[in-house]
Amino acid sequence: MPIPLDAFAGASAGPADMGPGQPAQTRPTYVTVGDSVMWGQGLRPENRFRERVRQDLSEVRGFQVVELSMARSGAVIQPAANDDRDHPLLVGLNNAGELADHHYSPDGYQREIPMESPLSILGQLKLAHTILLDNDVPPEQIEVVLVNGGINDFGATNIISPLEFLRSSLSDTLKAPLQGMMDAVLPLTTPVRDWPTWLVRRAEAMSLGERLETLLETALSLFPEAMVVITGYYPLVSAHSCGNAHLIQLLALLHTPLSVVTAALQHNLALTAFLDVETIALAGWERASSTWVELSNTAIQGAVDSVRRDPRHAGRRVAFAPSKMAAENAIFASEPWLWGFSTDAATTMTTLDRLLNAMDLNPEDEVAAERCARYESMVRPGPQYDVIYRLASVGHPNALGAGDYAASIRAAMAALDGVSRPVV
User: Fold this and answer.
1) Which of 131, 268, 379, 388 is the most buried (most CB within 10 A)?
2) Cα separation of 300 and 292, whole Å?
3) For residue range 29-87, what is the model confidence (pLDDT) as tens digits?
4) Chain-centre distance for alpha carbon 226
5) How large a percentage of the chain has pLDDT more than 70?
6) CATH code for the domain of 176
7) Which helix or strand (DSSP H or E) is residue 201 part of?
8) DSSP character for 236?
9) What pLDDT is stored for residue 157 in this prediction?
10) Between β-strands 227-231 and 144-147, what pairing exists: parallel, antiparallel or unpaired?
11) Nearest of 388, 387, 407 to residue 397 by alpha carbon
């Protein structure tokens, strides 16, 4: 069954109240696609940057702009098989009149919860186009498309934990017979200073720039009258974060397979050595974060420049809206623009105990209670996942960070259409 517009429009805060006498607009003119940053992880609907942009568009246009919201936590630009044909969401509605994939329900902050194999961002664009056509809305009516993506293709874990880098530095002859033990001792044997260089090579190997270019080309092709704005990423960790190095260490452990952490304990390896704060937090984490921002910004700007030069898109409006977050705005810093967490655990509690005791890890975000309630109603896969879902907002923009994104998007749109936009 075709998907009605309100099945996805309901994921936003909805049209703002423009006051008496203002014309109503019920059809979408604004499409948003992307990952958890675009979704607005941890934020109430009115604080999400895409909602702030929608309100701004409504004020400028003089009518209530309606958003078609497609973004979801965990989305990659393109799936590994380069094909979304078998995704249950493409079935539309089931016989009960509900979305065939409940992971996309706009109710209960369902899209806050990480899941395996969500619809790709390219798939989101294509599904948005299909939904519009199925509801007799010409795609030419879409005026603004807001997109992001890339960090999940790249692997956000690779920026937070050096495990995959350390594994890749082993020769194949060592990997097979010693995998279990080496997973635990690798951080003691490989120089972490090479981690940022490995991140650059990974981006090149996965053709990050080409994926971003395909994303922009698809948005421009499906929505031929829209301006397209793509957002970037930000430094997760900086030198300003290191006063809370033990929390950074915990954050890395949360993105490390539980079997690896257990192996370290079984072999009497101190976890402070496994992810050594002095070696990694000061010399590695900060450089890994800044390297990701630099290489992703370069790839995004390169993709924008490429589609602008393409004669097929001559005259089209497309722009990059980079984050302006600075080092002092990183996680656990003095003026954070990212959600963090705290712990009530006693200092004598082992790191593994903290990892398994989700209730001692307290997220800072605005919708933790709603997200956890939704997760509790699901089939729970295991203790490490309890922590991941509870802390799913960590490292995402808070209300201040969302304000930074909204301001950058406004500036990008102003440059594209020459209209001065108010800073709200």
Assistant:
1) 131
2) 12
3) 999 999 999 999 999 999 999 999 999 999 988 888 999 999 999 999 988 765 666 67
4) 23
5) 69
6) 3.40.50.1110
7) helix 195-205
8) S
9) 84
10) parallel
11) 407
Q: Is residue 158 packed enough to be buried (19+ CB in 10 Å), middle (13-18) or exposed (0-12)?
A: buried
The residue range of the domain holding 205 is 6-417
Q: Give residue 113's pLDDT band: very low, low, confident or very high (50, 70, 90).
A: confident
Per-residue pLDDT tens digits for 142-154:
999 999 999 999 9
CB 5 within 8 A of CB 45: no
Domain assignment present for residue 72? The answer is: yes
CA 137 to chain centre: 29
Domain annotation covers residue 216: yes
Place of tokens 């490995």: 198
User: With 70 as the cut, is the pLDDT of residue 119 above it?
Assistant: yes
Structure tokens at 18: 């423009």
Q: Around 376, how many Cα atoms within 13 Å sit in the side-chain half-sphere?
A: 8
pTM for the full predicted model: 0.87
Integer Cα distance of 346 and 419 in angstroms: 55
Predicted pLDDT of residue 185: 47
How far is the C-alpha of 391 from the C-alpha of 393, rounded, in Å? 5
- Domain count along the chain: 1
pLDDT at residue 408, rounded to an integer: 98
Q: What angle do helix axes 245-254 and 383-390 make, rounded to 10 degrees?
A: 120
Residues 6+ apart with CB under 8 A from 237: 248, 281, 285, 286, 288, 289, 330, 331, 332
CA angle 121, 126, 131 (to 5 degrees): 120
Contact 186, 166 (CB under 8 A): yes
Query: Tokens standing for 86?
Result: 């078998």
Using CB atoms within 10 A of its CB, is residue 187 exposed (0-12), middle (13-18) or buried (19+)? buried
For residue 419, the model assigns a pLDDT of 45
Q: Distances in Å between the alpha carbon of 23 and those of 20, 31, 59, 64?
A: 9, 20, 12, 7
Helices of type H across 310-393 = 351-356, 368-376, 383-390
User: Would 334 be classed as within a structural domain?
Assistant: yes
Pairing of strands 361-363, 341-343: antiparallel
Average pLDDT, the chain: 79
Residues 6+ apart with CB under 8 A from 122: 77, 78, 84, 214, 215, 218
Residue 186 lies in a domain: yes
Residue keyed to tokens 């003691």: 188
Q: Are 56 and 424 in contact (CB under 8 A)?
A: yes
